[in-house]
Specification:
With 107 residues, the chain is mostly helical. Helices cover 68% and strands 6% of the residues.
Length: 107
Amino acid sequence: MNTENNLSQLTICIHEEQTQLTLADLCRACSIHAEQIIELVEVGVLEPQGREPEKWVFIGDSLHRARKALRLQRDLGIDFAGAALVLELLDEIASLRTRLRAMGGEL
C-alpha cells in the first residue's frame, strides 16, 4: 500500500509541473482580479515565465501557492508580503524535513 501512495503522490507532482496556466486561468481558478496576481508576483509568492503579464505562464504549483497566500490574507489578515515570507519559511521547513529524512533522522 505504501508504494501505491508514493506512486500517486509522484504522479500528482509530475502533473502539476507539466500544467501551465495563463494569468487569466489563475485569476479564474482563484476567483480574484489580475491586479492581485500581479501583486503576488511582485512580492515573490509567484514566479511566472514571461516578461509581460499578458504573456505570463504559471506552473501548476502556482495555483496552490496563490491559494495559500489568499487564505493567509483572508484568515489571518496577513498582507501579501507577509504571506510571501510565511510561504518561504514553510518551503524551508519542508526542505529541511526532506534532508533529515534522507539522512535517516526522525521528525
